[in-house]
Design brief:
Elements: H1 25-30, H2 40-47, H3 74-80, H4 93-117, H5 133-140, E1 150-159, E2 173-178, E3 189-190, H6 197-209, E4 222-226, H7 241-248, H8 254-257, H9 266-271, E5 276-284, H10 286-307, H11 310-313, H12 317-321, E6 350-362, E7 369-382, E8 387-388, E9 392-399, E10 404-410, H13 424-452, E11 459-460, E12 468-471, E13 492-497, E14 502-505, H14 519-534, E15 539-542, E16 545-551, E17 554-559, E18 563-566, H15 577-587, H16 592-597, H17 599-602, H18 614-621, H19 627-641
């Protein structure tokens, strides 16, 4: 007979003959359901009787004939009987039920107390547990569809302050992601429910990072690198995982990047079986991050000093700076072990869909858009949206050739919770408005880069030729339309190529300031100024945002969901008319690129007292320009942008 056994780490109960330590057998069964203690599964498991001697629990355990519930084994029967002999008179069912009920109530109380202790703090803003059904399925499938192949990513962390060594204190991890997931290697925040691989890894690193630091890492402060601190090849930062792996698995690259496995991952290589994997490093640019934190603290101090009393203002900057600290990030953790089962909830339903492709072209001279109907296309659209904003649903769309797209439609035309549903005709008008804004944006952006005569840094959606489509066959479930007759039009969709979920915002609807000083941000800010001036102050592009993507075979940025303010205020949702244009003239501050291109003088932000036509303005400006001025502007631009020559021109 063993000595007094250890108590269960969760329920605190002791079982004399229990084997092992930590959790008792019943708590082991309950553990997978800790994220939902009020669920039917958890409640059912609570009802199962448990042997008070060894701790075993079964659904159909026989009713005990002794003074305590046992599993029926000879050892437990003897240990559970005070005299060591069987008692002829059985314990009444009601007494057994009451004893089990009391045990379960105690266990539930302990469990609730445990959940309260691990609840997220107010500042954390996260639920007590992240183990929702959707989260677990997302983890099990690697962020892709059920059954989609995976590639395993092994990673360690390297700090720019100590670039020759691995930051062992930040841990090392391995995780499998679906091959359709995007890396990506560029900066930005994450939109939607499926962050990209780098954003997910950054979140995992923050679990350790925030133990000794006041603020979490941002994805824009971290870069992907190969093991050994090798920089990624140009044009591979924004690839999907499958394409990323394919690029580095060529005969010339594989020996360097894939087959040259670091010592730390040798054991994983031996046990991986047929798994494909890559060994990466997350390079944290500590210097850039610390500079940003110091600037943030200085702004906080400046703001606090303005609001404080004269006594508080007398405090020195050095003493105050030591007290400024952001709330520590509360990150929920779990030891949950994922099962490999597949249930009906894993299956994403889709419907066949037939499109008539509508192409949008713009006049080279005045930018006037035209819609042209083209061929009919077929594909599959998922019934449920993968993401929903305040007014639009976004559905996954797979064309007949296997290309992946995203199809968007409106379901509301305002952000009011009680707004009416959108009709097919209303949706078509708004989708056409979005397409026209994209076409205008592309036209102005082309003019901007022609003026710059430089390699393109950003681009509006290169796939705009597939941006507007209309269902012409039976309506899909995703459209929400019950039936299409000969007199009806089909649901109109804005279709874009699927890209990373990472989004970088450069301006808001009525806010046009930006604290970013990188070349790409400065370029986009200058583009907004160009469109304002080149249109003779008749249009302002707002809510500028983009995702990293492949642009003409290299890493670039694709702008999407453009809003615009026009003089007439008739450009669709988000057009605030003259008020919106005035917000740009109020907020915009010319940067170095604006100045180098002469926008601060050629396109003044002050509203014109009397508006001239474009032709008269151009007539007045043309005599003032000559070839020498153009050459001087080009030299200035080359020095300012520090860009390579455009190989495509």
């Amino acid at each position: 007979m063993a000595e007094v056994s250890e108590a269960c780490d969760d329920c605190g109960l002791r079982f004399p003959l229990r084997q092992g330590s930590e959790l008792c057998p019943k708590c082991v069964k309950l553990k997978p359901h800790w994220h939902a203690i009020d669920s039917a599964e958890y409640t059912e498991l609570q009802k199962w009787p448990q042997c008070t001697v060894c701790g075993v629990t079964r659904r159909n355990m026989p009713v005990s004939t002794h003074s305590a519930q046992t599993c029926g084994s000879s050892l437990c029967t003897k240990a559970g009987t005070p005299t060591g002999e069987e008692t002829p008179a059985p314990l009444g069912p009601s007494l057994v039920a009451n004893a089990a009920f009391e045990t379960n109530q105690n266990r539930a109380a302990l469990m609730r107390d445990r959940m309260k202790r691990f609840q997220a703090t107010k500042n954390g803003g996260a639920p007590g547990t992240a183990l929702t059904t959707a989260t677990l399925q997302e983890h099990e499938h690697g962020g892709g569809a059920p059954g989609e192949p995976k590639i395993w990513v092994c990673w360690q962390v390297r700090l720019s302050s100590q670039p020759k060594v691995i930051a062992a204190g930040l841990g090392y991890h391995t995780k499998g992601w679906a091959v359709s997931k995007f890396m990506p290697g560029h900066t930005g925040m994450v939109a939607g429910n499926t962050p990209d691989i780098k954003a997910e890894i950054t979140k995992i690193i923050n679990t350790e990072w925030c133990q000794n630091r006041s603020s979490p890492l941002l994805a824009e402060e971290v870069d992907f690198r190969w093991h050994g601190n090798r920089i990624l090849d140009p044009g591979t930062h924004t690839l999907p995982l499958n394409d990323f792996y394919a690029h580095y698995s060529t005969p010339s690259n594989a020996p360097i990047y894939l087959q040259n496995v670091p010592t730390h991952w040798k054991s994983f290589e031996r046990t991986r079986g047929s798994k494909r994997f890559i060994c990466m490093e997350l390079y944290v640019r500590v210097d850039k991050r610390d500079l940003k934190v110091r600037k943030w603290e200085e702004r906080v101090l400046e703001s606090d000093s303005e609001k404080s009393s004269s006594r508080k203002r007398a405090r020195t900057l050095s003493s105050a700076s030591t007290s400024v600290k952001q709330p520590r990030l509360s990150v929920p953790g779990s030891n949950f072990s994922l099962s490999r089962r597949t249930t009906a909830t894993d299956i994403k339903k889709w419907s066949p869909i037939t499109f008539r492709k509508i192409k949008c072209i713009t006049d080279d001279v005045d930018g006037a858009p035209k819609l042209i109907e083209e061929e009919v296309m077929r594909g599959r659209i998922f019934d449920e949206p993968f993401s929903s904003g305040t007014m639009k649903h976004a559905h996954d769309l797979i064309m007949a050739n296997g290309d992946q797209f995203v199809a968007k439609r409106f379901f509301k035309l305002s952000d009011d919770s009680d707004a009416d549903s959108v009709t097919v005709q209303e949706n078509r008008l708004e989708i056409e408005g979005e397409l026209l804004r994209l076409a205008w944006g592309r036209w102005f952006l082309n003019g901007f880069y022609q003026f710059c005569k430089k390699q393109r840094e950003v681009d509006v959606d290169e796939n705009a030729f597939l941006a507007l489509t209309e269902e012409v066959d039976l309506p899909s479930i995703a459209s929400g339309v019950p039936i299409i007759t000969d007199k009806d039009i089909g649901m109109t969709w804005l279709v874009e190529r699927k890209r990373p979920m990472t989004v970088t915002k450069y301006s808001g609807t009525l806010v046009h300031t930006s604290a970013r000083k990188d070349l790409r941000s400065l370029t986009i800010c200058a583009f907004a100024h160009f469109a304002f001036g080149f249109s003779d102050q008749s249009i302002v592009f707002a809510d500028l945002q983009g995702s990293p993507a492949q642009v003409r075979g290299g890493d670039g940025l694709v702008l999407f969901d453009l809003m615009a303010h026009t003089q007439n205020g008739d450009c669709g949702i988000g057009d605030f008319g003259k008020q919106g244009i005035e917000s740009f003239t109020r907020d915009h501050q010319c940067n170095s690129i604006c100045s180098a291109l002469g926008f601060d003088t050629q396109y003044p932000l002050k509203p014109r007292s009397s508006r001239n036509t474009r032709s008269s303005r151009r007539t007045q400006e043309e005599p003032e320009s000559d070839d020498s001025d153009d050459d001087e502007d080009e030299d200035q631009l080359e020095d300012e942008l520090q860009r390579e020559s455009d190989d495509n021109n």
